[in-house]
Design brief:
By secondary structure, this protein is of the alpha+beta class. Helix content is 27%, strand content 31%. It is built from 6 helices and 12 strands. The longest helix is centred in the last third of the chain and has 28 residues. It is elongated.
């Protein structure tokens, strides 16, 4: 089911929102597939070659200026394990850094939902985004990033899918649904799936003062260290328990039937006499 947003031919868009979506060198294939899935959902997105590691994050502002983009979504990888995502409004900010978790791409899920490519999405947010100031800021950044501009040349004039953002357990959960029936409002999930754990919000674009820092955030390195410490504690407790068992002397019980088969010696007869 599709909902037309306009009738007749549509010309060049007047909304000049353009988003640059790219990554740093060293990301895994799983992260690259997620980035490509998001590009498919964003017809106003532009791509670029991977950013070299020797270049700083501030160079992204210059790349956006050359690409004529006013916002960017940037992915970077640490230790081939941890995926981080930047959302930034170029060139004056703000910018936010997230840890990306629970990633499931479209090819991985193979869900039954399907929608038109380059169609405009409906964005939904739960009430939690309006309860805290930093979440309201993140909500506005997500709206500008994922909302396809009206009359954009590469977009189709239909609403046939919903992008859902839910703040739960300190994380932002992303889902993409196809609108199968407009009257009943039935939805079928398309994918991808992932969740964002907010780390920090900066006043500028990849720079500036820290205007918010998540007090509940725990880095992946710290989390892995705690797991190793907990495993070592369990091993030590088990080793101490086994050592205590081995230290206990096992005293055999006397059997009353042993006296029946006892042979009396001469010394025992003399002692008895």
């Amino acid at each position: 089911a599709v909902v037309s947003t306009q009738s007749g031919h549509y010309g060049r868009g007047t909304n000049k929102q353009r988003a640059l979506v790219f990554a740093a060198r060293g990301i895994t294939f799983h992260a690259r597939h997620l980035m490509n899935d998001l590009k498919v959902l964003m017809p106003h997105a532009k791509s670029d070659s991977k950013l070299e590691r020797k270049e700083g994050l501030y160079a992204i502002n210059e790349i956006c200026e050359m690409k004529n983009c006013n916002m960017t979504m940037f992915f970077e990888m640490r230790k081939k394990l941890d995926l981080f995502m930047w959302l930034s409004m170029v060139p004056n900010g703000p910018s936010a850094r997230f840890l990306v978790q629970n990633v499931h791409t479209m090819d991985e899920l193979r869900l039954t939902g399907n929608h038109l490519k380059s169609s405009r999405p409906l964005l939904t947010f739960n009430k939690a985004f309006d309860e805290q100031p930093h979440l309201s800021l993140i909500k506005e950044m997500l709206k500008q990033m994922f909302a396809t501009p009206n009359m954009h040349p590469k977009s189709k004039p239909f609403y046939d899918h919903v992008l859902g953002f839910t703040y739960l357990d300190g994380r932002i959960w992303f889902r993409n649904f196809q609108i199968t029936d407009q009257t009943e409002g039935s939805l079928v999930e398309v994918g991808p799936r992932f969740c964002l754990w907010l780390i920090k919000i900066f006043s500028g674009s990849f720079s500036g003062n820290v205007i918010y820092e998540n007090p509940n955030y725990k880095s992946p390195n710290q989390y892995r260290t705690e797991l190793k410490i907990a495993a070592s504690h369990r091993y030590k407790a088990k080793a101490e328990k086994n050592a205590k068992k081995a230290a206990v002397e096992i005293v055999p019980k006397e059997d009353e039937l042993d006296e029946i088969f006892h042979t009396i010696t001469q010394d025992e007869l003399k002692q008895a006499g």
